[in-house]
Amino acid sequence: MKFKPINDTSTIEMVKADTDLKIVSSKKTYDTQNQYSNRERSTIRTETNIKTINITLSFLIMFVSLFFIASSFFKIPPFNEKNYIGYVVVFSFCAFIFFALGIKNAIEKRAWKKAIELNGASRNMGDYALNNTFHIAYRSIILKNINLTWILVFILTYVGVITAVIYGLYNIGKVDFELDVFGGKIITNLDFAKWLDSAFGNTLLFCLISVLSMSALIVFYVIMRLVDKKRLSDLENYLGDRSVQIHEQIQKAKKDRNRAWGIAYAVLVILTILIPLALIVFAIWRAIRRKKVKLIK
Fold it and tell me: Where are the domains of the chain?
């Protein structure tokens, strides 16, 4: 009895070829011509993943904020008793900010992927466009850290002041104003505790949430700075012979960016915090001096 070997292995070869193609496509969709080294691909993949995570987190927080806004309007727990306008304002602000951040990160990711795809084809011609892309990413991260630092300062300043004012007014309780108008007297009662509870439900809980939120922002900021430090270390390897020139340009850009943020911060704090606070303190001092204000706790 004679045995003949099976010569038809087309099925096996087709499956193998298809599998290999899928593996290559999944690993290097942006590098179809194998233009980048393993280290460059690792850096590109890291930057792309970070941008994807930023987009996901931004839109996730936005949708969570929108959910709480809808819960407040439709009286869904934990807002099942009444519509707390204070939380609606806070969550609306958060939804707007993180929507803007999500769009910004999506635009940056699209621009990054397009630059990588366009520059990859020119590597064989001795074009340094890829390195320029890494240079731009390096500069962008440094300036982004400056922006994040000042944004954190703004948030801590305003949220801290607002929380302190709300907590202070809540502890004051009631204020009776007795005013002399055209020879007569007008007595006005301001019940801060009642107003604040109607806006936030539990004012002390709102203040606690604000403090915890500021603490979480600080922790998140520190984590982001540590991650960016690693990213800068990776990107610094691609600065090449122009590293000194690039660092000088970045230092100048950092100085200009810090100056712009510093001026904006000083002007806004003076106009929105210091001047109104000075006017309020002066009005209270005059009222107390004339003995026309009684604080009731």
Answer: 36-127
